[in-house]
Amino acid sequence: MIKRYLLFCAAVLISHFAMAQKVVEPKGQPDWVKPYQPFRIAGNLYYVGTYDLACYLIVTPAGNILINTGLASSVNDIKKNIKALGFKFEDTKILLTTQAHYDHLGAMAAIKEETGAKFFVDAADAEEVASGGKTDYALGGQYSSFKPVKADKLLKDKDSVVLGGTTLVMLHHPGHTKGSCSYLLNVKDDKKTYKVLIANLPSIVTEQKFKDIRSYPGIAKDYAYTINSLKHQTFDIWVASHASQFKLHEKHKPGDAYNPAAFRDEKGYKEEVKFWENEFKKKLAKE
Questions:
Q1: Which domains does the chain have, with CATH numbers?
Q2: How many other β-carbons are positioned within 10 Å of the β-carbon of residue 140?
Q3: Which residues form the Metallo-beta-lactamase domain (predicted)?
């Protein structure tokens, strides 16, 4: 009788564990899974993502850095893109993300496991990545939306990530998620050095009133901080978490020659930040 009871308890625990680990990735947009030809943006910075989900490869003599991984199904696309550029997928040494959402972290756990790379994340998103997105204030729920990822290092605002002579500075830009972030780095080709901003723009993902989001009481303050920070960034060229946000497909067509100047677009950057500032103000006004 006792043995039967213990077996029953074990079965219940296994069932609960399986439920806790269940991953249900929400349905994405068609452009999120549409393949896209990889290309060199500037210096040692390359685009290896899908048509709209931006993933960036930074190549160094000591191995490579991959920022964002798209959806869970993006693993093979990223592999193919890295190989097509002449680099090795297994040379990935550091993994980063701009935000803890399934459309940018879906393949992170798989790529981490396959390459053995270290995953660094903004400390404020540590809980979200560990839960697979279950604890996210806007997109969280009963199940994880991506496979949970173990962080090897937690980053704070303006921390540096250094590999093979390349230094990225992480900028804490919360609001979209608690630990959304952007990156600044210098890349160099045989003609000049470019200051690059990989921007995570503060799009508003919830219809809830900010004051009603009890799991994120400082959300309005964080959005205001991020918008102000983005307004004061300086750069030579910029890109973002989604190709559509920086109008990639107007600036680059598959097969185009190497052209870093196409990504300068300070005017487009200011317009994009201003758009989200206005959306934020409209939301505040309604509340």
A1: 29-286 (3.60.15.10)
A2: 16
A3: 52-242
The pLDDT value given to residue 21 = 61
pLDDT band at 20 (very low <50, low <70, confident <90, very high): very low
Instruction: Count Cβ atoms below 10 Å from residue 159 Cβ, excluding itself.
Output: 17
- pLDDT for res 143: 84
Phi, psi of 119, deg, nearest 5: -105, 120
Amino acid at 203: S
Listed residue (82, 263, 271) closest to 187, CA to CA: 263
Q: Which long-range contacts (CB under 8 A, 24 or more apart) does 191-194 make?
A: 193/43, 194/42, 194/43, 194/236, 194/237, 194/260
pLDDT, tens only, 215-241: 999 999 999 999 999 999 999 999 999
Beta-bridge partners for 183: 170, 198
Give the tens place of pLDDT for each residue, 163-185. 999 999 999 999 999 999 999 99
